[in-house]
């Protein structure tokens, strides 16, 4: 009977020790791997950048950069606990919410700025990045409802989750104007082959299509015939054109 009890106690001790090793060891390894991945991860290209500006008080000033591979960078500049550059992995549900909200915002058709008469409000800036162009929209309290909903989602992303500090220096995101490219939205029903043929002598040429449904294209122009501002003015005079503005891009990071 003594031997049976002794074997039973030994079995319990070995079992507990083995279970503890199985449970604890991989957890420590996983944590270390996750942290290391955030420094070396392939984030892909940015799809949307959300920036919050300063106010007269202690409004947090930061930029949230969402990448196509499911990562987010938070660059804190003032009045925030996360100063400098921070990063975290987003869940599939979070990425789906962001992508759906970006699509629903219909950003290419929106104004570049929604002005406000209230000085003491932080400015919110959305930067939407596609392969061929970048669209920047700034607003305060007045903005389209779908854009406002996207802002709420991005604000929640910035405030939630476990972030890892990457650098003490915040990242600067600077869209650059492409002075030899113009983003043009044509009226529905415009026969573009005929339009470009009629404008060929003016030096306008097709570069690429941005949005088929909204009829938005990137076009180039002959700089020997037009300065950039003159080319935009010429396009705005055309009856087939809804809007024309310089193309803007952000370097992939």
Describe this structure in words.
The protein has helices at residues 2-40, 92-105, 145-159, 192-198, 228-236; strands at residues 46-52, 61-67, 71-78, 84-89, 113-114, 124-129, 134-139, 164-167, 176-186, 205-211, 216-220, 241-249. It is of the alpha+beta class and 253 residues long. The chain folds into two domains: 46-167, 2-Layer Sandwich (Mago nashi protein); 176-249, Ribosomal protein S6/Translation elongation factor EF1B (Alpha-Beta Plaits), CATH 3.30.70. Strands 5-7-6-1-2-3-4-8 form an eight-stranded mixed beta sheet, with helices on both faces. Strand 3 (71-78) and strand 4 (84-89) form a beta hairpin. Helix 2 runs antiparallel to helix 3 (145-159). The longest helix is centred in the N-terminal third of the chain and has 39 residues, at 2-40. Residues 1-34 have low confidence and may be disordered.
CATH homology superfamily name of the largest domain: Mago nashi
- Helical amount among residues, as a percent range? 25-40%
Main sheet properties: 8 strands, mixed
Contiguous runs where pLDDT drops below 50 for at least 5 residues: 1-34
Tally of helical runs: 5
The CATH architecture name of the largest domain reads 2-Layer Sandwich
Oligomer: single chain
CATH topology of the largest domain: Mago nashi protein
Cα radius of gyration in angstroms: 26 Å
Proportion of residues in β-strands: 25-35%
Compressed to H and E, one letter per element, the order equals HEEEEHEEEHEEHEEHE
What class, by secondary structure content?
A: alpha+beta
Number of strands: 12
């Amino acid at each position: 009977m003594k031997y049976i009890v002794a074997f039973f106690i030994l079995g319990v001790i070995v079992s507990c020790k083995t279970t503890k090793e199985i449970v604890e060891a991989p957890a420590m390894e996983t944590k270390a791997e996750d942290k290391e991945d955030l420094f070396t991860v392939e984030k892909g290209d940015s799809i949307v950048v959300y920036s919050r500006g300063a106010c007269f008080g202690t409004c947090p000033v930061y930029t949230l950069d969402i990448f196509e591979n499911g990562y987010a960078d938070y660059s804190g500049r003032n009045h925030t606990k996360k100063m400098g550059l921070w990063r975290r992995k987003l869940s599939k549900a979070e990425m789906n919410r962001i992508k759906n909200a970006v699509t629903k915002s219909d950003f290419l058709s929106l104004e570049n700025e929604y002005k406000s008469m209230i000085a003491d409000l932080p400015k919110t800036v959305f930067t939407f990045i596609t392969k061929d162009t970048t669209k920047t929209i700034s607003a305060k309290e007045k903005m389209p409802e779908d854009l406002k909903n996207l802002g709420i989602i991005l604000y929640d992303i910035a405030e939630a989750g476990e972030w890892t500090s990457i650098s003490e220096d915040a990242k600067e995101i600077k869209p650059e104007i492409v002075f030899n490219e113009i983003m043009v939205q044509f009226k529905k029903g415009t026969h573009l082959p005929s339009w470009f043929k009629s404008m060929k002598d003016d030096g306008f040429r097709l570069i690429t299509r941005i949005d088929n449904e909204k009829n938005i294209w990137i076009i180039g122009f002959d700089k020997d015939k037009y300065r950039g501002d003159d080319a935009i003015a010429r396009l705005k005079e055309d009856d087939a054109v809804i809007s024309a503005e310089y193309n803007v891009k952000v370097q992939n990071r």
